[in-house]
Amino acid sequence: MKTTISEAGKYVEQTVTMGSWLANKRSSGKIVFLQLRDGTGFIQGVVVKAEVGEEIFARAKELTQESSLFVTGTVREDERAPSGYELTVTDIDVIQLAEDYPITPKEHGTEFLMDHRHLWLRSKKQHAIMKIRNEIIRATYEFFNEQGFTKVDPPILTGSSAEGTTNLFHTKYFDEDAYLSQSGQLYMEAAAMAFGKVFSFGPTFRAEKSKTRRHLIEFWMIEPEMAFMDHEESLVVQENYVSFVIQAVLKNCPLELKVLDRDTEKLEKMSAPFPRITYDEAIEFLQNEGHEIEWGEDFGAPHETAIAESYNQPVFIINYPKDIKAFYMKPHPDREDIVLCADLIAPEGYGEIIGGSQRIDDQELMKQRYDEHNLSLESYQWYLDLRKYGSVPHSGFGLGLERTVAWISGTEHVRETIPFPRLLNRLYP
């Protein structure tokens, strides 16, 4: 019976064959212990010389790290094994003997590992992070599909900026200027006017010359947009979504969380509703804590960390000053100097994972914003049309996948949360 490591529990005391790679091995006289992996998981194969004979035992002894093989054996229950099972090997069919695999079970520098990212992905820790990433993506689709959202894919090549910033990657689109998308939000607003509730999931690009552990040049975002929904209702969707994803990871990735030594007790406390403080309250708190920050300034990493440390949950900071937020955010009904927006700050120093707001739905006010931000009416006429033809109150948000993976998995740097990270000094491999 051919199967995978993740399915081994279905075949206890039965003989199975698995395609696998050798992650590591150790020998104890007349027994060889093979640490096997196949992409679905890890299992130990035990080769006993007295049971398999000289030829097969010799094959086991000659196996090198990352050699590929078909291994046949009997699945046994083993409480000591991380998965609860091990394999008593009866036969080995070597596919390829790997030579001089560069990532050995010793300490390697970060740059060396990044140069060998295509191989580093095979390691147990990286495997666990990617499995958690996959579960977050799977749970995202489940959540929004169950909530009646339609997935719509915005373009990656655009003729204008979503945020009105200059941090864009420029390219030529035949005889026009084009940019790599920094957000699909504006297009998702158009989609929401057609489908009501929509979400996108795709790559975004920021040409920011940042080297912090929170930043990537290319990253993935989940961007829902909702018609007939105000800011307060959007916050409820956001906290329910994040809670749903956390519970999915706790339920479906216990082995991966264990491999990463993640403190799951902290994650188990993360459930909606999340606490909320205003920008005004956050400024006052920071000033009282000795931070040099004035009203009207945006928060940096130390500020977000200080605020998050006051809670054991993610915390919403709401109602930022208009002048430090994007042109499309709706003004607060009681104050012209602030907007109906929120950033969700993850605990444990992981920073902002969601930014969202209610969008301006008034055509004249949006024209005014165009003037204030020097936006071309020609380039943004289509976006203005959304306020001209059947405008409605609408809200949306964007969640950065890699920061969320880093937080939930307990990974310090976002470069480990994406298969092939693009950093300021890295375009290889």
Quickly list its features.
single chain; 429 residues; alpha+beta; OB fold (Dihydrolipoamide Acetyltransferase, E2P); BirA Bifunctional Protein, domain 2; eight-stranded mixed beta sheet; five-stranded mixed barrel; 18 strands; transferase activity; nucleic acid binding; EC 6.1.1.22; aminoacyl-trna synthetase
Question: What topology does this entry show?
Answer:
Blueprint: E1 15-28, E2 31-37, E3 42-48, H1 49-52, H2 54-62, E4 68-77, E5 85-96, H3 110-115, H4 117-120, H5 124-146, E6 150-151, E7 157-158, E8 170-173, E9 176-180, H6 185-195, E10 197-205, E11 218-227, H7 231-252, H8 254-259, H9 264-268, E12 276-278, H10 279-288, H11 301-308, E13 315-318, E14 331-332, E15 335-339, E16 341-346, E17 351-358, H12 363-372, H13 377-388, E18 394-400, H14 401-409
Parallel strand pairs: 3-5, 6-10, 12-13
Antiparallel strand pairs: 1-2, 1-4, 2-3, 4-5, 7-9, 8-9, 10-11, 11-18, 13-16, 14-15, 16-17, 17-18
Protein name: Asparagine--tRNA ligase
EC number: 6.1.1.22
Organism: Salisediminibacterium beveridgei
CATH class annotation of the largest domain? Alpha Beta
Strand percentage, roughly?
Answer: 25-35%
Number of H- or I-type helical stretches? 14
Helix content: 25-40%
End-to-end C-alpha gap: 37 Å
CATH fold-type name of the largest domain: BirA Bifunctional Protein, domain 2
Shape descriptor: elongated
The radius of gyration computed from the alpha-carbon positions, rounded to a whole number of angstroms, is 26 Å
Q: How many distinct folded domains?
A: 2
Looking at CATH, the homologous superfamily of the largest domain is: Bira Bifunctional Protein, Domain 2
Strand order of the largest sheet: 6-10-11-18-17-16-13-12
> Helix- and strand-based class?
alpha+beta
Overall mean confidence score, pLDDT: 96
